[in-house]
């Protein structure tokens, strides 16, 4: 894939991560609960029963992780050999699988 296309994907994922982060922060702070109540396990489990909020959190995880991984890839591409960068990116993407798996279990 061309570097210009990867850069465009990097920017789009960064913008989408910012959008889903703003949704998350809005859901977190758009109520009158205190911080202790808002971050209690019972409130969090109640919020995660909302499937749309859970999907938005998974999309936030995906876009933020992808944006960060593409940034790390670019750093390795600039300063190290391409093969090392590809191996690191593959390892980073493999760590995303358990994150999504455990997020879906909750």
From TrEMBL:
The keyword Transmembrane applies. The chain crosses the membrane at residues 9-31, 51-72, 84-104. InterPro entries: SQR/QFR_C/D. GO terms for cellular component: membrane. Keywords: Membrane, Transmembrane, Transmembrane helix. This is Succinate dehydrogenase. It comes from Sulfurisphaera javensis.
